[in-house]
Structure formats: C-alpha cells, structure tokens
Amino acid sequence: MSHQSNGVSNGHIVVETHHQFLDELYKMMVRDAYDGMKDRDSKVVEFKHPKELEAMLDLGLNKETSDDSLLKICQDIIKYSVKTGHPRFFNQLYGGLDDYSLGGSWLTEVLNTSVYTFEVSPVFTVMEKTLLQKMLDLIGFTDGDAIFTPGGSLANMYALNVARYKRFPDVKKTGVYGLPKLCVLTSEKGHYSMKKGMAFLGIGLDNLVNVKADDKGKMDVQDLENKILQVQSEGKMPYLVNATAGTTVFGVYDPLDKIADICQKYGLWMHVDGAWGGSALLSKTYRGLLKGIDRADSMTWNPHKMMGAPLQSAAFLTRHKKLLPECHSANAAYLFQQDKFYDVSYDTGDKSIQCGRKNDCLKLWMMWKAKGDVGFEKDIDNLFECSRYLAKSVKNKEGFELVVEPECTNVCFWYIPVSMRNHPRDADWWQRLGKVAPKIKEKMTKDGTMLIGYQPDGERVNFFRMIISNLEIVKADMDFVISEIDRLGKDL
Predict the structure, then answer these.
(1) Which of 445, 395, 437 is nearest to 89 (CA)?
(2) Is 342 helix (H, G, I), strand (E, B) or coil?
(3) ∠ Cα 50 52 58 (to 5°)
(4) In whole angstroms, how far apart are CA 178 and each of 99, 142, 173, 207, 234?
(5) Which residues touch 64 (CB under 8 Å, ≥6 apart)?
(6) Above 60 in pLDDT, residue 61?
(7) Helices then strands (H, E): number in the chain?
(8) 456 Ramachandran zone, left/alpha/beta (phi>0; psi -120 to 50)
(9) Three-state DSSP state, 92
(10) Which residues share a beta bridge with 410?
(11) What residues are paired with 3 via a beta bridge?
C-alpha cells in the first residue's frame, strides 16, 4: 500500500512518501482510459446489464483490499465505463477530453480547494474572477457579476431566485408568504430544469407557463405577449421569461432581440439558458445566433458542453453587479470576517448558495490559456461545420431523412430501413418507424461502435438526436455515423 515514513534530520522532520499505487493507477489511466478511448477502433462502451455488472464488480466495502486488487478493480472500472471522450460518443450534450483540461482536472483534485475565501483559495479566486469576466465580456455584461455553479440546472435556479429577489427584496427576510402569485414564462421547448426550479423555490409547477414554439422550435413571441396578458388578467404576476440559446433536442436559438423587447415592455427579467448553445459566442461566424444576448438580465453557460471542458464547468452570469451577494449572503462570521488583513471583496463564497464549492475554473482556464481565443474559435467553427456536413449527407443518402435543419450542432434525423422504403406513410408506417431508432440504438450499444441518443418530439416519432460536441471530431466521423447506422438498420 502507499505509505509515508517519517524521520528526523538536523532537527527537521523528513517525510518519505511511497506512492506505488498512484504511479500504477496514473499509468493505467493514461494508457487505458485516456489514450485508449482516443482510438476510433476501440469500443465506446463494453455494455453489461445492471445485474451482470453488479455480479462482476467487487463492490463490497467490508474488508481491507490490497493495492493489486484495487488496481484490478480500477481496470474493470475503466473497461465497463462509457468512454465519453471517444470521438464516436454522440449521446449527450458533452464529450471529448484534451491534455490541458485533463491536466487542470488532475491539479484541481490534488490541491482539493474549496473556493469561498481568498485566504484558502488565493490562486483560484483571482483565476475565477478573470475567467468569469472574460465570459461576461463576451456576452456584453461589461459591469456584471457571475459565479460557477454545479451544472446548468442550478444556474437556471439561480436566475429564478435572483430575479425574484430583485423584484421583491423582502422575500429574503419574510419568505414567500407576502408575495403576489408569481409566475414564469418559458418555451415549451425549454429545459426541464425550470420545472425543478419552480418546485424547489416554492413557486410551483402550476405557475410555470409554457409559451408555444413555432415549427422550427423557436419561442413564438406573439404567444409570449399573449400569455403575459392572459396571466395578468388571471391575477398572476409574471416576473421572468426564460429564453433558450440552443434547445436540448433541436439546438434552436430563440429570437432573443424580440424577446428582449417584450421583457422591456412589461418590466420582466430576461434569462437566457445558453447552457448548450452559448459557446457560439466564441465564434465570429456563429455568435449572431445569440443576437440580443447583451440585452438579457442573466445567462446560463456550460463550458463543459460545447467548449469541451471536463465535467463540471457551468456558470450563472448577470448584468447586475451587486445582486448575487445581496440575494445569497448569510454573512457567516467564522468565514467571512470583515476585519481581515486583505481585500475582503475577493471572498466570493457568499455570492453562492453553497458553502463548500469545488474549483471548477482551473480545467477551463487551462484549456483557454493553451488555445487562446483563436484556437477556441476554430474548434467551435469545426463543430458547426461538421454538423452542416452531416445534415447535407443525411439529405443526400437514401434511407435517411432530416427532421429539421440544424441551427446549433444537433442533427436530428430518421433512418428508414429498406423494408419500409417506397411504402405509404400512413399511421401504421409511422408507428413502425418509431421502433427503428431504439432497435438500432440497442445494436450499436451492444456492439460498442458508437452512442447516439433518440427520442420522439410531439407528433414526431423516435428519431436520432446526433450531438456534435467533441472538439476532435472530423468530417470522417460524420461519414462513419451514416455508414454504421445503415449497416445496423438496413435489414430491419
């Protein structure tokens, strides 16, 4: 086992550390987990059913375990885990891993710092400040404020809470009892975290008002105004509109400028959930998709998605400079003393709803420092270009049919097996087509060749939702997706 031995030399304690376990684990991680998953011929997943996996892995915690046994378990952990850094992992709104981000993650874990005061986190406090200001500037919140959060869902909850405090500052002291009946408006295509936030904050699911989306999936601005007037006539008080920059399924960008006009007209807080599509701000070519973002009151942005930072890296950003500490501070005397010998404005922990808060900035800062703005822009442009290439390939390949034209890097399409081509598209035909994507997904998962998600949407039966987010993806990977789905599905 790893151990350390202490001795005394010239009055000083000498510590000799032996870390053979870490040395062996490091080599295994680099060889089998990191380099291994970069190999396009390797499996994305070695699938086992839950009960099989429980029986195979030594999960019991009762007995002491030797280093050799632990290393064998670590080998199994790597073998049976999904390789999310594999170039053919397209299943979620994240993927990929590079040297610099991985190095930042490892250094983060070694230093094990909680980012709440400058005194215990001096480097990461100033690093986070620099990084968040960079993101604020890209949005157009030049005199704003921001905080890293444990994921985009929590960042969206921050918006609900901070916007409510801005409108009703007494809520922090008196609670919800004296408030009018509040409501929030969001697109019917918006993220489900708004439901969680409404329930969590005690506003209630019944007071989350869905706004219609058009046939492209964008928020219908006329319906937004109609819904505002409707809820007002019902005695409710709308206070926030949640727009989306890159919806989860189709990757659609809501018309932010027009939504900003409505919010300004009715005095509503405008939040933009840019967890997925916000990274287009790094590209001069595609940042126009977020035209009007500078007029919003707040934004959610997840660099662990399209920017490729390791999980988790998510931020809540607002144009309102002092609102986060005013809304969330508890002024704990043992932690946030005001008579410290340094500038206590750098003690940022009271802006957060957390106490202990993981350093989520180093891995992103390391990537950005290595790539620079130009390098990141090339990466983002490549993702968009690959998505356009795939969409064109889908339209030109027999048996493939595009659901919608991609706006972000989501490409949604149906695969039609040979047995169903040139048949009338009646209700029975569509019902059968809805079973195709799940069957092909089962085959690809068991073969381990790639992972792509699927789902229905309204009256549209199951289709593939291809997510292009790994910064190392190239157009040849798009060709592989087409050929592999055709191989797996042509005989259905």
Answers:
(1) 445
(2) coil
(3) 100
(4) 53, 35, 11, 17, 18
(5) none
(6) yes
(7) 16, 14
(8) beta
(9) coil
(10) 467
(11) 18
Verdict on whether the full-model pTM lies above 0.85: yes
Structure tokens at 154: 């929590």
| 336's tokens | 């946030």
Q: Is 473 within 8 Å of 411 (Cβ atoms)?
A: no
Beta strands in 57-175 (DSSP E): 89-90, 145-149
Tens-place pLDDT, residues 225-277: 999 999 999 999 999 999 999 999 999 999 999 999 999 999 999 999 999 99
SS3 86: coil
Q: Which residues pair with 183 in a beta bridge?
A: 238
Identify residue 262 by its one-letter amino acid code: I
Q: Determine the average pLDDT of the residues in 89-98.
A: 94
CA–CA distance, 412 with 367 (Å, rounded to integer): 30
Q: Which residue has the tokens 């409710």?
A: 236
d(CA 36, CA 97): 12
d(CA 431, CA 411): 22
Distance CA 252, CA 388 (A): 14
**pLDDT band at residue 343 using 50, 70 and 90 as cut-offs:** confident
Whether the ω angle into residue 312 lies within 30 degrees of 0, i.e. cis, is yes
Q: What are phi and psi for residue 289, nearest 5 degrees?
A: -60, -25
Bridge partners (DSSP) listed for residue 149: 314
- The CATH number of the structural domain formed by 114-358 is 3.40.640.10
Residue 249 CA from chain centroid, whole number: 13
Cβ-proximal residues to 332 (8 Å cutoff; 6+ apart), any chain: 350, 355
413: part of which helix (H) or strand (E)?
Answer: strand 410-415
- 152, 273 Cβ separation under 8 angstroms: yes
CA 274 to CA 386: how far, in whole Å? 21
Report how far residue 399's alpha carbon sits from residue 401's, in angstroms, rounded to the nearest whole number: 7
